[in-house]
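Summary: Need help interpreting a holo structure output

Steps to reproduce:
1. Submit the protein chain below together with the SMILES for pyridoxal-5'-phosphate.
2. Request a joint structure prediction with the ligand placed.
3. Inspect the C-alpha cell block that comes back.

Expected: a single structure record containing both the chain and the bound molecule.
Actual: see attached output.

Input attached:
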Amino acid sequence: MTGALGMTRPGPVGLLPPALRTIPAAVAANVAIARTRTRARIMAVVKADGYGHGAVTVARTAVAAGAEWLGTTDPAEAARLRAAGLTVPILTWLNPSGVDAGAAAAGGIDIAVGSPDELAALLEQSPSTAVRIHLHMDTGMAREGCPAAEWDALIALARQGQERGQVRVVGLMGHLPLADQADPEANAPAVSRLRQAARAVAAAGFDPPLTHLAASSGTLTDPATHFGMVRFGAGLVGIDPSGTTELHGASRLTAPVTHSAAVEAGTPVGYGGAYLTPRATNLSVVPLGYADGIPREISPDASVQIHGRRHRVVGRVSMDQIVIDTGAEHIPPGTTATVFGPRDGVTPTIHDWARWAGTIPHTIVTGIGSRVKRTTA
Ligand SMILES: *Cc1c(COP(=O)(O)O)cnc(C)c1O
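--- attached output ---
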C-alpha cells in the first residue's frame, strides 16, 4: 500500500528504539560509597529528573540503599516524589515564583528560605499548619541563600513565624561554591560562615536545626563540610565532581544501527561533507542526534561501542542521527550501538563524552532528549 505521497517507509521491523536505561544497582552502589565517607545523614538530590536518570527510580533506589532524605529544586518535583509513595523528608530550595505554603505543609515538603522577603511571602499566606523551613545562608555563591547582612532579619522573622505556629525551623543550610574541588582549605570560608550562622540561630533560641552544606564533592572529600547531613546528587548517577573517586555509571544509552554501507575512499559524510573517508570503509548510521542530546561540538575522538569495539563518530552530528566509521567491519542493521555506559574498558562513559564535548558529564546526562525511551535495567 502507498500513502498519498507514495512514501510508505517501513521502519526497521523489530528494532529496539533508542533507549536510556537506568541502572539502579549502580545508584545503590554509589550511595554505599557515600556511606563509607560520612556518618552524616545522606540526602539524595534528584533534581532535573534525577540528573536525567528518572527522579522516582533514583529516589526509590537511593532510599532503599540508605538515603534518609530527598532533595529537589522545586515543590512540583517534590510533589511527584510524594505521589510516587516516597515518605522520607523532602527539601526543595529553589522556589522562584514563591511557594504554596498550604500545599507544602500538607505534602510534608520542607522549604528552604534564603531571604527575609521569601519568608515574608510564605508567612503572608498564614499557613494553618506550620511549614517546615530550612534557613539558607549564602556561603559564597551569590546565588540562592541569604546574604550575611540580612541573616539577623531572617532569623527574627523566623522567630515570629514560629511563635505564631506558621513555620518551624528544622534545618540550616549553605552550599559550597567550589563544588568541584577536592580542597578542604577552599571550603573553609563556607564552613566558618555556616558555623557563624548556626551560632546566631542557637542564640535566637531555636532547637538545633539539621545543618547541611556539602554536595557530592564535599561528601567524598571533606568531612569538615558534612555537619548533620550531606546532599548527594551527581554522585548518585556516577559523577564525582572532585575527580577523586571512581563511582559507578548508572545509565546506558543505546540505539540500533539503522543503515550500513561500504563506501569508497574520499566519500564526504554528512552536512557540509565535513569528513572525507580517508580510505574505503564501512559506515553505519545511528538514529541519535543533537535533538537527543548528542553534543554537536565534539572532538574527532568521539566514539560509540559496537560489537565490543569503539568506532568513531564522523562528519557533523545531525539533529536526528550520527554516522559511525566502522572501518573494515560491516555492521548489520539492527546491531546495538552503545553511546555511553558504565566503565568497562571499551564502552565510552559519560566522562568521555564530557571530555569530547568540552563540558561536564552533568550536561550529558541531563541533556538526553525526550524522545529517547527511558527504561530501567
Ligand atoms: C544540585 C545541588 C546539590 C547536589 O550537588 P551535586 O554536586 O550534584 O551532588 C546539593 N545542594 C544544592 C543546593 C544543589 O543545588
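--- end attachment ---

Reviewer comment: The mean pLDDT is 93. The two ends are 38 Å apart (CA to CA).
Status: needs-info
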